[in-house]
Amino acid sequence: MWRVQILSHYMLSHLYICVNLSPFTVTSSATTAPSKNMDIVTISAVCILLAFILLSLPRSRGKSPQNIPPGPYLLPIIGNIHKLGKHPHKSLANLAQVYGPIMCLKLGRITTIVISSSSTAQQVLQKQDLAFSSRCQLDAVQASCHNKYSAVFLPVGSRWRSLRKIMSSYIFAANRLDKNQHLRSRKVHELVRFCEKCCQSGEPVDIGRAAFLTSLNLLSNTIFSKDMIDSYENLEAKEFRDLVWNIMVEAGKPNLVDYFPILRWIDPQGIRRRMTGHFEKLIKLFDGVLKERLELRRMGKASDNTSTTDVLEELLKMLQTDEIDEAQIHNLFIDLFVAGTDTTSSTVEWAMSEILRNPKTILVKVKTELNQEIGKGKIVQETDISKLVYLQCILKQTMRLHPPAPFLIPRQVKEEVQLCGYTIPKNSQVLVNAWAIGRDPKLWINPLSFQPERFMDSQIDFNGHGYELIPFGAGRRICPGMPLAMRMVPVMLGSLINCFDWELEGGILPEKLDMEEKFGITLAKLHPLRAVATLVVL
Predict the structure, then answer these.
(1) pTM across the whole model
(2) 336-372 residues labelled b (16+ CB within 10 A) or e (exposed)
(3) Is the N or the C terminus of the chain less surrounded, counting Cβ atoms within 10 Å?
(4) Which of 336-350, 387-401, 454-468 has the lowest mean pLDDT?
């Protein structure tokens, strides 16, 4: 009994630190006060329960895999959970400097392999892609059975291939995107008009919020031929953005249930409960759009040019032939809107932040290019992107330092596999630290410096061929939305730069601009970028 008491006290002390001082407690603004900190009695009960169960388990007689990758010393029960810290991408990058580009950690009962070099990432994402192509079944994502319908989290198989085919053929194919280009152009014009209105009133522009609403409506016009939110000042825009970010936070934070599956029935951090609520709100919203279109079709009013060329119309045709069902449509929309809005707007905000930190160099150069290639004060069109080489370099540099998903999406090996001379145990979680690769001093000169010029004569692109820069991943699991993102981001960013002159709110000096991050599945700015726009005089 004394062993249980000592071990319970030990677990309590370490889990209390992890739960209250690490990403475990990252909560949404809508979370009620009592849920922000776990009750100490609950933590104690969980610890004691774990102690009894783990002490009572018989020792395994099977042999552990030999020659597993190196890693930090394991603490009893919790393993290396305490090593994650508030910013796991940074903590694991620092550990990789000690233990190497293939590192093994034990997070509770989950063996986790961390990949921190481009050459090793190429092995995982390309040369041994199939062995590493499965996804971890995160408890947070299993809320509302989303993992059963999500192209992001489904294992490679017939259902996954079907969803990927729908996205590649009916959503992100070049000819499909070309047909809806005029709809997205209209949204960029509305973004510029909103900034002009802020100019007149002297109000600063919240770049991230404005970019999010534009991204949301760009995407919804491509899919639904309509706006999801009709005004930049609309409270619904903030609520929708908060909802999307809350999903990113809950899915990205370390979850005790993933590390100790026995806790699933308790849901000690409330992650599954909150995620279920978030998914239900989105499904209700998308179900309303779906039923509205079905009613229009029933009344014979859905044959105009906008509705017959959009994604929803194609999906409804497939619904009629039983190629897809409503649950798959709802969850496809969740994938598209959650992944496609937050990452796009965050990239625009990070890029603008880096540009405004360097007003005498980078800002001057990109404005000069825009003036020469498309004309001063004009809105950038999608057909202009190929001419704007320096603008593209800025985006590459932004995604190198601020990748939308610092660990990409966690992978899993279903069987034991060999990697670069090491044995990767069966069912290991695999994290590719794209954030660490983008800042690797072995790959980049002055890796922390924002220098778009480094890409001017480089063949590195986003297509997963150069593993030094993999913001969209690579291989069969590469992000299917990349073609749309590569149209949306440069058009928004280029138009904001070319149509306005910018100063940081409150006269903040460029070098004093706060660049701190907040962690989820994606990386966002902790403090929103707010800047005052002045309309460019032609």
Answers:
(1) 0.87
(2) bbbbbbbbbbbbbbbbbbbbbbbeeebbebbbebbee
(3) N
(4) 454-468
pLDDT digits (tens, 9 = 90+) for 150-163: 888 888 999 899 99
Contact of 212 with 524, CB cutoff 8 Å: no
C-beta separation of 229 from 210 below 8 A: no
Residue 381 C-alpha from the chain's centroid: 26
Asked whether residue 213 is assigned to any structural domain, the reply reads: yes
Q: Please name the residues in contact with 140: beta carbons below 8 A apart, sequence gap of 6 or more.
A: 250, 251, 255, 271, 272, 275
Residue 19 falls inside a structural domain: no
The domain that holds 257 is classified in CATH as: 1.10.630.10
Angle between helices 362-373 and 326-356 (to 10 degrees): 110
Confidence of residue 311 (pLDDT cuts 50, 70, 90): confident
Separation between Cα atoms, residue 88 and residue 249, nearest integer Å? 13
Give the three-state DSSP class for 432: strand
Query: Whose CA is closest to 292, among 283, 301, 279, 281?
Result: 301
User: At 209, is the secondary structure helix, strand, or coil?
Assistant: helix
Q: State the residue range of the domain holding 93.
A: 78-535
Angle at 279 between CA 313 and CA 231, to 5 degrees: 65
As for how many domains the chain has, the answer is 1
Grouping H, G, I as helix, E, B as strand and the rest as coil, residue 169 is helix
Report the alpha-carbon distance of residue 459 to residue 481 in Å, rounded. Answer: 21
